[in-house]
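Teaching assistant's notes for section 4

Start the section by putting this record on the projector. Ask students to predict, before seeing the second block, whether Histidine kinase will look compact or extended. Collect guesses on the board.
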Amino acid sequence: MHLLVVDDEAQILELLDLTLTMSGFLVTTARSGPDALALAQSRAFDVIVLDILMTPWDGFETVRQLHAALGPALPPVVFLSGLNRAAQVPDLGDALIAAYLVKPFRPSQLVEVIGQVARAARNRPSD
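Reveal the predicted structure now:
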């Protein structure tokens, strides 16, 4: 499974890359929403793992931009946040399959959630 992992903090991005690669995923990283958009327009990903608190675009704006560019091809998204509560996930209708994971989390939790959203995307009825 090919993941796009997006976080503007280099150390966290490196840790996620290492953890997910060791869990058997093919990982591509991006340091910002605009970088993630450019990558997602150039290749396909199975799941996007995305920090919420980033600049210049936060995770929700990044998903809005990805949805505008990719439409129904938008892969499922796992939002990561240090906020103790689930923030308002953008309403993109049926186009967005998403999960929300609060930091800190165990690597096994992240792997499990990635599997859940990937299965949900595979089981989504096609138009």
